Amino acid sequence: MRVADCESDAVALTREWRSVGNTIGFVPTMGALHEGHLSLVREARTRCGKVVVSIFVNPAQFGPGEDLTRYPRMIEADCGLLASEGVDLVFAPTPDTVYPTGFSTFVEVTGLTAGLCGASRPGHFRGVTTVCCALFNIIGPDIAVFGEKDFQQLAVIRRMTRDLRLRPEIVQCPIVRETDGLAMSSRNAYLSPEEREQAAFIYRGLTAVTRAAGKGETDLKALKAVFVSVLSRAPMLTLSYFEAVDPDSLEPAENLDRTVRLLAAVVAGSTRLIDNISLEPPHPSRRTGC
Ligand code: PAJ
């Protein structure tokens, strides 16, 4: 496995691989890797001849007062994990490499970024799309793999890639969870033991909503009440949002006549946690009025 912090090395190596007919799978990350990240790496591994992972804690996607300085950095442990997964190249640039003096161009997806996490994190998605666009241009991947964990990010990246005719196909992977259901996240490390225990109620709430819908409840307000009621059993968690949206446009769903995505964000102390689940339309025999 090669590790490059220099952009020209990453460009030269990936160019050489493409020139001899290799396909390249790319997994962008901010490091502090866990099984969720590794699942994306494995997906890239099954699809492509060469796998590149970037590790870059991207300053442009952190707002003032967010956790840029305390974000966990553990490059050596990360490289150990990636070597065991058969990764070919880790690209770990410095901020000065990605944003050289005079850098002044940003990529912004409008509309999709306005609500949900975009509403409370202004500029966040602009930072994500700008860095991903730059990384795609450095690596030149055939596919880029993203997790459903960050569902709004995935939709935003898909839109950017489509609109700007960027090279990679965007591949999405399901959320990997801890045994109690909490979605794995590098930020889970910030949680106190009590917060960590209560954080499991986010997924419990989402599955309770799925069960209620399975029993025929189609009113989205009533389904939100189910989520809120489960979450109220975890007093250390404060709801930031719970929304049912169309999985592509992220527009709020009016009703349950098609598959929707339930997205939730909660705050535990100073840590923001997000999760989501797909909700299928109710079985016709359970639909009231049929
Ligand atoms: P990061 O939070 O490190 O996540 C990197 C990738 O791993 C993202 O695609 C994310 O959705 C995925 N991921 C994280 N936790 C996961 C889980 N439990 N199951 C499945 N996939 C999971 O997302 C970012 O970094 C950054 O915004 C980035 C795209 C790298 C741009 O800086």
Offer a few descriptive terms.
alpha/beta; Rossmann fold; single chain; six-stranded parallel β-sheet; three-stranded antiparallel β-sheet; globular; 290 residues; Pantoate--beta-alanine Ligase, Chain: A,domain 2; 2 domains; binds pantoyl adenylate
Describe the structure.
The chain has helices at residues 7-19, 35-47, 75-84, 95-98, 117-120, 124-139, 151-163, 193-214, 220-231; strands at residues 2-4, 24-29, 50-55, 89-91, 143-147, 169-173, 237-245, 260-268, 271-279. It has a six-stranded parallel beta sheet with strand order 1-4-3-2-5-6, sandwiched between helices. Helix content is 37%, strand content 19%. It is built from nine helices and nine strands. The chain is α/β, with parallel strands linked by helices. It starts with a strand and ends in an 11-residue tail after the last strand. Bound molecules: pantoyl adenylate (PAJ). Pantoyl adenylate (PAJ) binds at residues 28-30, 36-37, 39-40, 58, 61, 128, 131-132, 146-147, 149-150, 153, 173, 175-176, 183-186.
